[in-house]
Protein 1
Amino acid sequence: MVANTSAEVARGAHIAVRNVSHWFELPGGALQVIADLDLDIQPGEFVALLGPSGCGKSTLLRLVAGLEPATAGSLQHDGQAITDPDPSRIVVFQDPTLFPWRTVWDNVALGLQARGLLKTQRHRVDEALALVGLEGFSKALPHQLSGGMAQRVALARALVNDPGLLVLDEPLGKLDSLTRLAMQTELVNLWQRSGFSVLLVTHDVEEALFMAQRVVVLSDRPARIKQVLVNDLPYPRHRGDPRLAELRHQALSLLGLAESW
C-alpha cells in the first residue's frame, strides 16, 4: 500500500536493507548494535521503527540516510548503493536546529543555496513554506516561532530538496502533547500530498500506529526485527478505532509491556 491512491505512480524512494549488521568501536571493544537486518521500504510507503531505548533505531536511520557506512551488508536507494548523504534522503531530527540569525525563508533556502540552485529555483522555497502552512511567516526569525512552527520550518527545509525519502528521528519528541497530536496529522497529510517515502523512529507506540502503514518492532540491542505490524486502516484515522487498540496491545506485548495494558 502506498500513499498515492490516484493513477499517478508514487515517486517515493525504494529502500532495500540487506543483511545489515553494525558495530561501534569502543575503548572496551566492539559493540554490536544491529544484527542481520533486512528491511524494504516501498515507494511512497510510511514505515515506523519501534524498539527499546538504545536498541539501534537511530543508528539504522543514519545508515539509511548515508551518514555512515554499515559494517556489514548493503543498503540501496532505487537500486543504487547508499554510500554518502544525498539531498534525495533528508533527515529531520528532534531539534529543528534553525540558524537564529536567518529568517524562516532563509533557513528553508539553505539546501538550495548550498547546491547553487537558489537563483533559479527560489519559487521552491515559497512552495515548501506553503506546504507546511507557514507562507505568512517567511520574514520571521526562529525566536518568534512556537515549537511546532519551528519544526514545520525544519520540514519545509527538507521538502525544498524534493526528497524521495524523509527520515524522521523523533521529530515531534520535544513538542507539547496537543501540538504533537496536531503535528502527527499534519505530517500524514503532507506525506499523502507529496508522495515521498517515510522512515520514522519514535518511542511513542500510539504515534507509530496512528501514522504508519507498517510498524517494525525491533529487539533489544543488537537490533533484529521481532515482528512487523501492518496497519491497513484507511486515512484519515481515528485514535479511538478498535483496530488501533488491538495493534497497540500487540506492540506493547512485543516490547515487554503487556502488563501495562
Protein 2
Amino acid sequence: MAATKLETRNISKCYAGELIIKDINISLRENELVSLLGVSGIGKSTLFNVIAGVLHPDRGQVFLNGEDITGQAGKVSYMQQKDLLQPHMTVLDNVALPLFIRGMRKSEAREQALSLFAEFGLAGTQKKYPTQLSGGMRQRAALLRTYLFSQDVALFDEPFSALDAITKSAMHQWYLALMDRINMSALFITHDIDEAIFLSDRVYIMTGPPGMIASEIVIDIPRPRGDAFLVSDAFIDYKRQIIKLLAH
C-alpha cells in the first residue's frame, strides 16, 4: 500500500457556537485522488480551510507526511473554485507567482514555469493575459500554478464547476491523464456525483449537519478511465450506492 501523504484526525470546527464539522478523519495516499462529496453548505470548504492552515480547528490535528501541520498555512497547495488569475499579469507571470513569492529570480522562475507549459496544455499562451483564455485554459493555468506551489499534495475546491458540460468532460479526461504523469496526490471537493466517481480512487461521503464522514467508497476501476466507464454497469452501481448513502 502507498504511503500516507495527508491525514486528518478528529477535526471539529465551530462558528459562532455552532458545530460545523465534527470528528473528521480522512487520509490521502501517495499518487491518489480522493474526493469529498456532499451537498453545498455541509462543511467541505471549512474542512479544506482547516487542512490548508487558513483556519485552526477547535479540536483535532492535520498531518502531512507524518508531520503535524495543524494551523500552518503554506504547507499544501490550495486551488479554489475561481481561478484567481491576476488580469494585469501575463499567463506566464500568473503561473510563476508561487516561485516569485519564494524569492526566486524572475528570469529563473519564468524559465521553470515555462518548461511545464506544454505538459499542461498551455503552449503558446505565455504572453497572453487571462481575459484572452477560455475557461478551460484558465483552469489549466491555475492548476499549473497550484502544482508549482507544491508538487506534493494539493487541495481542489470544485475547480471545474464553472465550466460548461462539454468543456468539463474534456477537462476530466485531460486531468486524469495529467495526474498519472505528474504523480501529485490530490484531495478534491465536489457535489457532482458523476465527477467524483469518474475522477477518484476513493470517495468520502459527507453528510450532516454537522458535517461528518458517513462512508468511504473505493472506486476499484484502474485509471485513466475513458468515456465508456460513464455508461458502464460498474459506474451505475457506484452512483446508485452513493445516492442511497446521501439520501440517508
Protein 3
Amino acid sequence: MPRVNKLRTAPPGERGADTSAPPPARLRAALTVFFALDGFLFAGWVVRIPAVKHQTGATASTLGLALLGVSAGAVVTMMLTGRLCRRHGSHAVTVVCGVLLSLSIALPAQTHSALSLGLVLLLFGAAYGGMNVAMNSAAVDLVTALRRPVMPSFHAAFSFGGMAGAGLGGLVAGSLSPAIHLAALTAVGLLVTAVTAPALLRGGAAAAPAERRAADAPGPPAVTGTGARRIVVLFGVIALCTAYGEGALAEWGALHLSQDLGASPGPAAAGYSLFALTMAVGRLSGTTLLERFGQTRTLVVGGATAAAGMLLGALAPALWLALLGFAVAGLGLANIFPVAVGRAGALAGPGGVAAASTLGYGGMLLGPPVIGFLADWISLPVALTTVTLLAATASVLGFAARRTTNN
C-alpha cells in the first residue's frame, strides 16, 4: 500500500472548506439524518418483499437466490467504497450513494421475474453497502474531531429509522401497491438527500490520513502496517459476531416464539420489535457508557449481557421470559458493532471501515442459514444458542483487543 502523505490536498469540492464548513453540531446532525435515512429506506423495502415475491411469481428458493443480489452487491461494493472515500472524501461518496439508494429502491417493484429482481437488487445492494461504508467513515472522522465517542448515536439513528420505515410500511402495505410505496420512498430519499447534502458537502475533508487520525485520536497510538491489518480483522470479527445475532433474530425470532412457545402472531412479531427497540435505546446511551467505562468494558460487558439474554430467549419455557431475553440481548449487542467499526476506522481509515463492515455484513448473512441448518438437524431453540456463543466470543475478543482501545 503506498504511503499516504501527511500534507494532503483536499479532494475537489472540499478545498477551502475550512472557511465555510458548518459547525460540528450541524455536521453531526446531517450525518445522523443520513444514518436514519439508510435504515428507513432499507426497512421500507424489506416489508414489501412478500408483495414483490407475489408479483414476480418467485418460489421460496428463487426468491432466496434473488435476495442474494442485495448481499452480493453490498459485499463487493463495500471494499471498493473504501478506496473511493480515500480518493474523493467520504462526505461526497455518502451523498452519491444516498441518491443511488433512493433511486434504486423503486426498481424491485418494476420487475416481473426472479431473475430481473435479482439483477436490480445487485444495484440496490451496491448503493446500500457503499452508503454504509461512506457514512461510517465520515462518522469516524467526526468522532475524532469531536474527541467524544459519539459513534453509537449514529447507529441509534439507523435503528430508529429502520423502525419508522418498517412501521410506516406495515401501515400502508394494505392500501398501496409496492410500486407506489417504493416510488414514494424514492421521492422521500431524494428530498432528504437534497436538503441535507449541502451541510455534509461543506463539512471539509472526510478522509483524513490514518497517520493524522491516529495522532489526533485519544488513547494509545494506532498500530501500523501488518499489525494494524490484523487488529482491523479482529474488530471485523467482533462486528461479525454481533451482526450474526441481528440476522438470526430478524429471520428466526418470530418463528421460535410461535412454533416453540405457542405465541400468537402479534406477540411473535413483537419479539424482534422489542429486540430492535432495546438495541436502539442502548445505542442512545452508548456515548455515555463509552465515556464512563471505556471501549473495552463496553465490549466485554455488552457481549456477556447479550450472551446471557439470548440464552434466556432461546431456552426459556415461557413466552414472557423469552421476550425478556430478547430485550436483554438487544441491549447487550447495541454498542458492539459501532465500537468495532469505529475502532477499525480509527486504525485504518475508510479501508478499515470497509473491512470491518464487510465482515460484519457477512455475519448478518451467515446467521439465518446456519440457524436454519441447525434447526433441521437439532432444534430451533438449540440453534439459537449459537447467538449466545458468538456474543460470548465477541466479549472475549473485546478483552483481547484491550490494548488497542482507549480503555
